[in-house]
Specification:
By secondary structure, the chain is of the alpha/beta class. It has helices spanning 23-34, 39-52, 68-79, 92-95, 103-111, and strands spanning 8-11, 86-90, 118-122, 138-140. It is built from 5 helices and 4 strands. Helix 1 (23-34) crosses helix 2 and helix 1 (23-34) packs parallel to helix 3 (68-79). The chain is globular and about 45 Å long.
């Protein structure tokens, strides 16, 4: 059992984005709440994170208009806003069922490297082949 408490950066359909908040608000809310950053400070940091994934244009959009890959990216950015997070990807192919393999997932995780201490992927055994060549990401199947 993982015992990381408030350091868990969960990316899962079980922890969806808040639909009436913008992408900017969904991501920055964690730093505002947990680290008591001002709204402006948290949003400035969020904009920097969105730039890393070249998604600045999504800042004002809301969850319902995002495609699956965009939603996944926003969920990852929200997860790395946790203080010193262990990034946990819960069945990413359930979030993005049309992906053929994990290249997109690994690319996103690598772009935010240095903003989490560890990345774990939990998925079904039958998806194991989709994770070939996972690099430094530890995958639990």
């Amino acid at each position: 059992m993982l015992d990381h408490g408030h350091h868990l950066g969960l990316v899962s359909l079980e922890a969806p984005l808040i639909s009436n908040l913008s992408v900017l608000e969904n991501i920055s809310l964690l730093r505002q709440y947990h680290q008591r950053l001002s709204r402006r400070q948290a949003e400035d940091l969020t904009r920097e994170y969105l730039r890393i994934l070249q998604m600045e244009d999504l800042a004002g959009k809301r969850n319902p208009v995002l495609d699956e890959e965009q939603r996944f990216c926003v969920m990852v950015l929200r997860a790395v806003m946790v203080d010193n997070p262990v990034l946990v990807l819960d069945r990413p192919f359930k979030i993005m069922p049309d992906l053929a393999d994990a290249r997109f997932i690994y690319d996103v995780v690598e772009k935010v490297e240095g903003r989490y201490r560890e990345c774990l992927i939990f998925d079904y055994l039958w998806n194991e082949g989709r994770y070939a060549g996972g690099g430094s990401v530890r995958s639990f199947v």
